Amino acid sequence: MGYLPQLMYGALITLGVALSAVLFGAAFGLLGAMAKLSASRPLRAVAEAYTIVVRGTPDLIIILIVFFGGTIALTRLFGRTVEVSEFGAGVASLAFVFGAYATEIFRGAIRAVPVGQIEAARALSLPAPILFLRIVLPQAWRVALPAFGNQSIILLKQTSLISVVGLEELMRSASMAAGATREPFKWYLAAACLYLVMTGLSTILLRLAERRANLGYERR
Amino acid sequence: MLDFSLMLEVLPKLWQGVGMTGRLSLLILLLAFVIAVPLAFARNARAPLLNVPAQAYILFFRGTPALIQVFLVYYGAGQFVWVRTSFAWAVLRDPFWCLIIALGLNGAAYSGELFAGAMRNVPAGLVEAARALGLSWYSTMRTVVLPLAIRSALPAYSNEIVLTIKATSLASTITILDLTGMARLEVARTYAPYEVFLAAGLIYLAIILVLTRGLRVLERRWTVTR
């Protein structure tokens, strides 16, 4: 069991990648949703293209473009060789993918906020940022949470794809343990169990968060 | 910025990979469907002997990454001597069949849960009415539950088809030359990751867009609207 600590460390990296990507991805999603709901036609078109392209392309291709393409782009930009960190490229590509799904989730959730609420806030002459932060977001969040949580769990599993470009997360640690001990089944199964624990705990956390977000809406 | 002539140059090579991606997708969808239907019945069964294993199966395959499932089958199976000496080794040695088995089992879990949900959503009153008219369990399923369940599951199932096609890109991690595998090979030859991966991404996008349009037409035709 000598490789177990390495596997646990890999699991920590996996969690780090997933959390960072969810955070940045949520920001992408929020921007995307605002662009899709905006009055500007070019903004809407850009957001539409973003979601169609990302949802129609395998995540692995996007990871490969960001990782290998990113190195070339940054090298050209700075005029010298720039190594893209695996962690950074991993987070960037997963956040980019996550953002497309989050765009659709947030768009639907924002549209679910009753128009009367927004009209009332306007009538009270709340400034637009306050209107968005205090009126729209808290109500949209409740609607968005289940789908957002599910997508985050999907992202947690997709982090395994980063192992392909060499980041030493859980999947990669399992591959290294498998290669060194010549017991691939055992180590991949151990890693699978760790993933199962992480997705299971995330699901439980999500249910708790959903319950909390619905506190004021419970049916008597 | 982008070298378009290079993109055109690698297109024929990438096209060879498209055939492999298509074959993989079809066989995976077929295997997944064949397992998913009985799995959905087991998942909805009242007997714990059927219901618990089905739920465990779905939990495992939906709770772990597809990539690890692919590696478990492709690298993991070879760890056991009894597998290597059995007749199954002819299949498990081949990355092509390993990917189909791994992603087929994976897809079955997602589709199974989907079908089970669709069958549960058929109004209980319809089933009771069918039983009251003296229809057997088999006839109730064939003439009442399944036609309704299939229609309501269809939009989500088309989504499954798209996800399966995207998932076949994992083939490139176990040496299969599918579209992604061909692209990685061409990147190694041309050192032009942008052009080649973008071209491959556009091919996937085109396939998926055409497919989703087609599936939407089918959905509309099969859904009864007033």
UniProtKB/TrEMBL annotation, chain B:
Locate the transmembrane regions by residue number: 66-83, 95-115, 161-179, 191-211
Q: Known Gene3D superfamilies for this protein? A: MetI-like
Q: Which domain of life is it from?
A: Bacteria
Q: Name one GO molecular function term.
A: transmembrane transporter activity
**GO CC annotation, single:** ATP-binding cassette (ABC) transporter complex
Pfam families given in the database record: BPD_transp_1
Keywords associated with the record: Cell inner membrane, Cell membrane, Membrane, Transmembrane, Transmembrane helix, Transport
Look up and give the membrane topology term.
Multi-pass membrane protein
In Gene Ontology terms, what is a biological process of this protein? amino acid transport
Membership in a protein family? Belongs to the binding-protein-dependent transport system permease family. HisMQ subfamily.
Q: Which PANTHER family match?
A: ARGININE ABC TRANSPORTER PERMEASE PROTEIN ARTM, MEMBRANE COMPONENT OF AMINO ACID ABC TRANSPORTER
Q: What is this protein called?
A: ABC transporter permease
Instruction: Name the species this protein comes from.
Output: Prosthecodimorpha hirschii
